[in-house]
Amino acid sequence: MATMKAAMFLGPEKPLEIQDVPVPEIGPDEVLVKVAGCGVCHTDLHYMDHGTPTFKKPPFILGHEPSGTIAAVGANVDNFKENDRILLPAVLSCGVCENCRIGRENICYKMVMFGNHVDGAYAEYVKAPAKDIFALPEELPLEESCIIADAVSTPYHAVKNRGQVRPGDYVVVVGCGGVGMNTVQVAAAAGGTVIACDISAEKLELAKKFGASYVINPGTDRDANKAAIKEIKKITKGVGADIAMEVIGKAATQNFAFNTLKMGGRLVVIGFSTEKLSISGGKVMFFEMEVMGSLGCRPVDYPRIIELARTGRINVRDFVTSRHKLEDINKAFDLLREGKGLRAIVTP
Q1: Which end of the chain has fewer CB atoms surrounding its CB within 10 Å, N or C?
Q2: What percent of the chain has pLDDT over 70?
Q3: What pTM was computed for the model?
């Protein structure tokens, strides 16, 4: 039996361990993908450091942001062939449940996530249903394009489908990490006037590069928050932002984001949190505010995102700030813990 190298998740509070494991066997409707790049994501860090449970029990392989080339195809696969450049979405949908049939596949009742429900892509190979993969054009870099799978697609869905950003909208983005910075550039590509908020001066400078029109440090205490909200009101001609997007996952930053909004404004919660929302119910009612969550991305949107990247309206190449061999994957997670860089990728 052929084997491959994989970074195995053994359980919370343990480093990933490089092991030799069997190469996945594919069925007639599946493809085997030789992984070129896989993004290093905070979601994986939640499993490793914070005890967030996974559907598949350890040991198994994490990693849900893969790009690569097709190494083998199943007997029934006729739309892809060996050596094709492809992208895998982070989440697979069933296509037949109620949500899938009304176009909300990203919240499929039977969703399957790489590196959670099934083995992921921190490995030399990963298998996937052929129906779920997307072709990558030659103009896009193969390794760096892996971040489209989640770090770009999640902000795209949040901006386009949940936030409904239109040209001329004032958009506050709270948190300029990997997903947050892509929220900045996707909102800017949609025509929004982006106000990026973060406590890191370095990330605020980068936010300007990725399309932010204004940058603000909201601080970490109530007085600093109030000063930042006052500044946002000034930028927005005294009324507040049309849309605020929270990409950190803390009750305090969700509350701050909500308070930057105008009457009738829309809060989109992208950051994962186990904390309770602490916003004013009275304000939601009296000012007709909207508060909504945003998860992942619909399959139908991936070709649009890939085209935005191909034409340069979304920058994926410069977004990858470090590359790591599979053997050095734990160093990549150390950088993530320290908040350094935008997106690290593993290149098995």
Answers
A1: N
A2: 100
A3: 0.95
